[in-house]
Design a protein that fits this description.
Rossmann fold; alpha/beta; five-stranded parallel beta sheet; 2 domains; 262 residues
Length: 262
Amino acid sequence: MGMSDPPLPLPVGAAFVGAYVPYLERTLSRLGLPVTDRVTRAMTDGEKWLAIRLAEIDSGSPQALRRGPLEIFQEAMRFPTAALEADGVAPALRDAVEESALSGDIYGLAPASSRDLGDSVLAIHIKWGVARVKALSVKPAHTLSELAVIPRAAVAEPDPLVRETLKVALEHAGYATTLWRNPAEAETSAGTQVVHVAVIGAGHPVVDDLLEVCTREDIPGIVVCDVADDFAQARYLSLGAFRVVGRDAFIVGAATLLPRRA
C-alpha cells in the first residue's frame, strides 16, 4: 500500500474527542486538582487540537500512520498540564515507572489505556486496531503447498474483543491460532499439538500460571499489556516471558515480534 491508499473504513476520532473533556473532568476530580478558568480554557483548546489530529488519522493512509489515537490523546494532556503549571499547582509525586512511561505527564493526567476512557471507546479502539491490521497486511504472492507447516500460536486473553484483535494480528502474520482459557487447557493443548508461541494478555487472571506452562513446555510466551512499561517488563520477564509488548505495538507489528523459527 502507498500514500494514496484509502483511509480505514472505521473512523476513530469522534469517540476519542467525545471522551476528552469528560475524562479530564473525572480525572481532575479524582486527583483533587483545581479546575480554574485557565484549566477550562486549556481543556477546550486541547479538545480542538485533538479533533484536528484525529481527523488526520481518520482521513490518512494506514501505512502512513506513526502513532495511534491513544498516543495522540495522551499528548493532548499537555494543554491542561500547562494550565496547571501556570496556576502554580505542584506536580504529583510519581515513581520511576510512571515517570519513564510518560515523562511529561507531571500531574498523572494521561490514561494508561483506552479502557480508562470507557467501554465504548475501548471497543472502537480495538475494532480500529483490527481494521488497521487487515489494511496493513500483505498476502504472499505464492500459495502454501499442502505439505507446508503452518506455525501455531496459542492465544490466552479473557476479553473477547481484545482476543479477536490478537487472533487477527497472528493470522495475518501467517499463524494458525488456538485458544487457551486456563492452565489445564494449555497443558492439554501443548501435549496434543505443536504450539510455536503463546500470546497471553497481561489482564488474564492466571497469567503467571500460563507462563509457567510455557516454561515447562518450552513454548515462547509473549505477554501483551496495555502499556509495556518498565514494571511490566521486569515482572513478566522474571516469570519467563519471551517478550513483553504493548497491545498496539503487537497488533501492528506481530510478524516482527514473534520468535524466529528455524
